[in-house]
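Inputs:
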Amino acid sequence: MLEVRDIRKAFGNQEVLSGISFSIEKGDVAVILGPSGSGKTTLLRCLEFFEQADSGEVLFDDIDVDLRNVTKEQIKAIRQKTAFVFQNYNLFNNKTALENILEGLVIGRKIPKKEAEAIAKEALDKVGLSDKYAYYPSQLSGGQQQRVGIARAIALSPEIIFFDEPTSALDPELIGEVLATMKKIAKEGTTMLVVTHEMSFAQDVANKIIFMDGGTIVEEGTPRQIFTEPKEERTIQFLKRLLPEYTYYI
Amino acid sequence: MQTLDLHFMWEAFFIALSGAPITLLITVVALLISIPVSFFFSLIRLNGTPILDQLCRIYISFVRGTPLIIQIFLIYNVMPILVERFLRSTQSTISIFDVNPIWYAFIVFSLHTIAILTEVFRSALKTVQKSQLEAAHSVGLSTFAAYRRIIIPQALVTALPNLCNATTNLIKNTSLCYALSLREITLRAKVAANPGYNYIEAYIDIFLVYLLICSLVEYGFKKYEKKLKAYQCLSA
Amino acid sequence: MLKFDFFYLLEQIPKLVPYLDVTFLVLILTLFFGTILGFALAVWKLGKNLILRKLAYAFTTAMRCTPSIVLLFLVYYGLPALASILAFDLNDLSKIFFVVTAFSLSFGNVMSEIIRTSYLAVEKGQYEAAVSVGLTRFDAFRRIILPQAAVVALPNIINSILTLLKEGSLAYTIGLIDVMGKANLLIAMNYEAHALETLLALSFIYWSISIIIENANGLLEQKLSKGRTFIKTV
């Protein structure tokens, strides 16, 4: 469904993405792991065109994009098929929770208001915020705001949802509720591409792990492959730091 | 069709510039008087001392609510009479007309600037968190020392851009002193322009002189602000 | 000797108030043209065109360093001269034209800074989120960015209007008969006999207007807060 070929991106002299290639099938829950500075967030932002990649190709269903010559229509088309959940939630501050979700439906996708309202309410119910329709972001906790962000994404029925470190800005006790929500929608078959440090999610929910370091993909595989039988030294080092109880035999 | 008299412009520039010392004198005196007084007033405002606070608020409201030119006219109308009474009561032989109008300028601009700076300092002090004072007390500093060494330096960084604004406004406002027949920048150039009706050239020169002075002042403030901000950037 | 006639002061007020219409006319015209200029300048300052950006910033520096009265005279003397080069005769134009032009330039400058800083005060993430849910650039700007920027800008705009009102009093120097001009006439007609009373009456009028505007601004700030912390940009 989504195929990425040889994406490169440099900020000035610093090369952040040095040729990234991978593919995602429908229903995949792919997690990108890696140390800070490995380019994970940049990769995601390039896929939603918040950053302009220097070169590479993106094949999304039947849309074939050359990242050097992206057209506005292609960007629009891809954004219609995707949704993004931000690290800082980025809820529209001047709209209520319900209105936040309605924006994309009514204005973005031109769905009639009554229908949109039903979809929006269903999305908010799904993330467990049925009683917070009329609340403004400033009245919600971080975890609640992020759940609205997720609701905003799933309401659009996108083909894939990108998650950019969705729990990194949250207090520890609020992380759980967001991860639970993500797990729920993953089990329903949503295609997700997630950048995160939350190992529990990677181990329990993902069906594909991509390990990045220094702008390249070091290793790729199922959680079982990566966590219990890592092949690359760098992967081992990374996992050792994060999961001290594992030891590895090669 | 008229062309600019460049020869006149060259000469008039220096005539205008010769008024700069008076402009700067008024600015500096007004600042020297206003800064301590408005700092004191801002503390009164922050503490909310019953009667003094209300008086301050009325005073500030009046100064900020009326045009400066009216304030200048008011002082120019009222002060001479008060000064006259004072001089008579002390048996002085100085005539009212001998009093240099610059004294009235000092008074008006000080009063005006005090009102403005009080609000500047009040909001700057508010931005420094109360916890800084608590921390200072906990290590044994007196309130006075805490303000001097911890709070004021931090408030100063916030206040500096507004201080720069107030200073450049002060410099620009001195142009209104022509109403007091003070021979500052604007008046000198205007007088020089009268014989030949070279008003446009004169006003261009006046504009250039103010531009020059204000740019220098802004540059100076920016450098000072950078120096003060050093402690902020270290943690970045 | 100081002979203060309080009743004289009261008599002056109704003589002055009718001329407020000129004062407010100048204010509204300046607001209109100044805002248009301000928008244009702000767009240039935030845009990608280097030349336009430098021009806009140079204009701002020039305006910031120019006293209002100097600008007024520059426009009053300079514009007809400039126009005569293009073969326009501006000598019969009403004084209001020059006053509005001069103050529109300086107010436009102030507005451009307010617009620029309040636009920047809205986080970039708001725009990104808007386009990620499918809004066009225009819709994102109109529905998400603009409302939030306006909330930040409004108190500053109202403050600037107050300043404009006070600066506008200088229009009398080129002969405009607004409330300030009338006061000067009254003083001159009486050979400066009761100048103090007239000036105080004038002050009272300006002061009242200022108090009303400031209080309105305070109420507006409270209403717009909606529990959010406030960012003052200017």
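Residues 227-234 of chain C have pLDDT under 50 and may be disordered. Flag for discussion at group meeting.
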